[in-house]
Amino acid sequence: MIDVVAGLILASDGRLLACRRPEGKHLGGKWEFPGGKVEPRETPEPALVRELREELEITVEPLRQLTPVVHDYGRGPIRLIPIVCRITDGEPHPHEHSEIRWCTADELDELDLAAADLPILAEWLSLPEKR
Ligand SMILES: Nc1nc2c([nH]c(=O)n2[C@H]2C[C@H](O)[C@@H](COP(=O)(O)OP(=O)(O)OP(=O)(O)O)O2)c(=O)[nH]1
C-alpha cells in the first residue's frame, strides 16, 4: 500500500486550494488536493509540509486529519490521507500543476476531481465546522 498525503489548504475566507494535474501525467487534467507520496520512515504531517514546499513554495501548518481513503486506479492500492492545513508562509506558485484555484465548497463540487478525492470532499462538505 502506498501512502499519499493530500492537503486541504484552508484560506481565511473558507476556500480550499484545488490543483490540476498536468496533461500527460497519470490522472492528467483531473483536479486534486496537492500533496504526494509519503517517503519510507516519514510520517504524514512532515510529508505534507515537504510536498507543499516543493510543489507550491508555501509553508503550511497541519490542523487536522480527515478519514483516509483507500483507492485503486489499477496500479495497486493507494491510501490517500487528507490533512486540513493553513498557510503560514508564502503564496502558492504551482511548480507541478497546470492550474491552481481557490474554491468555495460549491465550486469544489463542480470540479472534475480525481476519484479518490470524492469521499474526501464529501466528508469536508458534511462537516458542520469547516476549520
Ligand atoms: N497528491 C495527490 N495525489 C492524489 C490525489 N488524489 C489521487 O487520487 N492521487 C493519486 C495520484 C497518484 O496516483 C498518487 C500520488 O500522486 P503524486 O502526484 O504524489 O505522485 P506522482 O504524480 O509521482 O504519481 P505517479 O504518476 O508516479 O503515479 O495519488 C490528491 O488529492 N493528491
Give structural notes.
There is one protein chain. This protein has 131 residues and is an alpha+beta fold. Helix content is 21%, strand content 36%. The chain has a single domain (2-126), classed as Nucleoside Triphosphate Pyrophosphohydrolase (Alpha-Beta Complex). The protein has helices at 44-56, 105-110, 118-126, and strands spanning 2-9, 16-20, 31-32, 35-37, 59-65, 69-72, 77-89, 99-103. The chain is globular, with a radius of gyration of 13 Å. It starts with a strand and ends in a 5-residue tail after the last helix. The mean pLDDT is 97. 8-OXO-2'-deoxyguanosine-5'-triphosphate (8DG) is lined by residues 4, 6, 25-27, 32-37, 73, 78, 80, 114, 116-117.
CATH-defined superfamily: Nucleoside Triphosphate Pyrophosphohydrolase
Summed up, the domain count is: 1
From the 3D structure, determine the CATH topology.
Nucleoside Triphosphate Pyrophosphohydrolase
How would you sum up the major sheet? 5 strands, mixed
Shape: globular
The class by helix and strand makeup works out as alpha+beta
Q: Encode the helix/strand succession as letters.
A: EEEEHEEEEHH
The CATH architecture classification is: Alpha-Beta Complex
Q: How many DSSP H or I helices?
A: 3
The span between the termini is: 29 Å
pLDDT below 50 for ≥5 consecutive residues: which ranges? none
CATH class: Alpha Beta
Q: Could you tell me which ligands this complex binds, including any ions or cofactors? A: 8-OXO-2'-deoxyguanosine-5'-triphosphate
Total strands: the figure is 8
Which percent range describes the beta-strand content? 35-45%
Q: Could you tell me the mean pLDDT? A: 97
Instruction: Bin the helical content.
Output: 10-25%
Q: Give me the Rg, rounded.
A: 13 Å
